[in-house]
Amino acid sequence: FILQLHSNSDKGDGSVKYILTGEGAGTIFIIDDTTGDIHSTKSLDREQKTHYVLHAQAIDRRTNKPLEPESEFIIKVQDINDNAPKFTDGPYIVTVPEMSEMGTSVLQVTATDADDPTYGNSARVVYSILQGQPYFSVDPKTGVIRTALHNMDREAREHYSVVIQAKDMAGQVGGLSGSTTVNITLTDVNDNPPRFPQKHYQLYVPESAQVGSAVGKIKANDADTGSNADMKYTIINGDGSGVFSISTDKETREGILSLKKPLNYEKKKSYTLNIEGANTHLDFRFSHLGPFKDVTMLKVIVGDVDEPPLFTMPSYVMEVYENAKIGTPVGTVTAHDPDAANSLVRYFIDHNTEEDRYFTIDASTGTIKTAKIFDREETPWYNITVAASEIDNPGLVSHVPVGVRILDVNDNPPELARDYDVVVCENTKPGQVIQTITATDKDNSANGARFHFSLDEGLSLNPNFTLRNNEDNTASILTRRRRYSRTTQDTYYLPVLISDGGVPPLSSSSTLTIRVCACERDGRVRTCHAEAFLSSAGLSTGALIAILLCIVILLAIVVLFITLRRSKKEPLIISEEDVRENVVTYDDEGGGEEDTEAFDITALRNPSAAEELKYRRDVRPEVKPLSRHHPSSSLDSIDVQEFIKQRLAEADLDPSVPPYDSLQTYAYEGHRSEAGSISSLDSATTHSDQDYNYLGDWGPEFKKLAELYGEVEPERTT
């Protein structure tokens, strides 16, 4: 039961009816329409809805008319402590540096209570620590977690699990509570210096260890982690600081000991090193815990190893003259056994390359000798490899490179630097330089750098050319007379003697070919002898014959082609029996319609006249007087079809016709008109009174036409 509604109009006789509307009416709240009692049908939760707004009205049950205005009333849900505090963000993971001061804040936790904070203590929360003491504490009101001890050491304990409880009703008995877990991890700080586990170490290193190789490792321990444990190793003193070096492996934090210089057991059997390991990242808050470094002593014991022979030099350079006899000593290599046993050494050459086969070596003394005669101009330098091994232990071998320089001797005479093409102009003057020549020598500068040029003294004085030694390893060719003639002599030969400055001096003779050419005034060559040009162009006799043969073949092909074309055209000339239209081309201008004698088509109109009008088109037409009257009886008797068949049979059976198709056209226009023809084409068979003498005045273009028409009248008269 919640409440009862009552109207002043209600007499208790049941005539008044109560109606309830609004939030939850009929579902959460129901009303007795007779008594007005309001009841709830289910439990109410203030955390879901704090109040409800309802409307009530009294009406007449019989008429359903309202007896009073509608009334509004509010039902408020009163809170009770039915919700426990909750940590919405838990569980928590948090870190705090080790060695923190007591009371250092770690984390603030907050619990929420859904109850009404304005009514009673249902939502008043108090925090407490259930687990994690005595290391941590929590503020009851704010929920701030703090450290509760001084200098908490990560190396002693790193992880802590703290349980925090939140209780409502201000922590009183009967209050509801909730809890959460806070996982706290102590982070590292550099509060621990590095320490070597031992103060003295001993390391064995064989003397055969290679320079630059790692020979040992050493490590100092550091309880810290991460960058706080980083360290650097150094050799601070000791007699081995110049022989060994140390570096730090950043991954393993170990000191790597390496060899800087080769070890020799026979010279020094042990070394002492003082090695320091120090942190690289210091925290000055904990400097009082230092120093953050440690020192240890390392003794290196050098182990004796049977070593291969050792040469007295890392490499050798020897010299020998070219052309030296086989077996000539070149030089000597020396090696000894560095071990205390001092075993005897045997020498040999590894014949791995071709150059190694050019030399031999004495196995006992190490003397290298030649095995062939060398030519410096062919190969001036040889590289060989000499090996040495102990007689007692042949497996131990050492090698040394030996370079052999071949020294020069003057064994090559000088010669002209190139083949000179010397040209002298016909109009040259005496004493004129026409060519400067130089020489080369395969020997080096000590035996061939100085050249002397001269003419062959055994020959008589050359009247045409002379030579001048320029004293700079060049010589000039000069003319000795004024003019030269190609017709008299087109080529001269000048022997030149060249000697070098070696010991002993060598000389050679070369012949210069001098061509006589016609030149311009400025000295440019205009033309030379044909043979000279051909030779300078590099054309051999065989090449010239081939070119001429090609030209002859081309000419023969052209002549053959022209002949074939002419032979094909000749059958096209109309025979005497051919009565087709003939077209003769002249390079002269015609006379228009007055030109009536160049052509007659009467044969086409009257086949009976074909035999009398057979003209050749390649000669001047002969115009014969024809009768102007033709009996009509003869025209009527001609059968044109028979005439065409006759001509067709003649063309098919004639053995002299061309081998290709020949088109011969025949046509018949019918009988002559009574009115006669007005065309000038038929004028060739009639007499004309026109005078064609004026054609001779038209110039040479109409000369042929004037000759043809000028002779027509005399012929007709005749």
TrEMBL record:
GO terms for cellular component: adherens junction; catenin complex. The keyword Metal-binding applies. GO terms for biological process: adherens junction organization; calcium-dependent cell-cell adhesion via plasma membrane cell adhesion molecules; cell migration; cell morphogenesis; cell-cell adhesion mediated by cadherin; cell-cell junction assembly; homophilic cell adhesion via plasma membrane adhesion molecules. The chain crosses the membrane at residues 543-564. The keyword Protein biosynthesis does not apply. SUPFAM superfamilies: Cadherin-like. Keywords: Calcium, Cell adhesion, Cell membrane, Cleavage on pair of basic residues, Glycoprotein, Membrane, Metal-binding, Repeat, Signal, Transmembrane, Transmembrane helix. Cadherins are calcium-dependent cell adhesion proteins. This is CAD18 protein. The lineage of its organism: Eukaryota, Metazoa, Chordata, Craniata, Vertebrata. The gene is Cdh18.
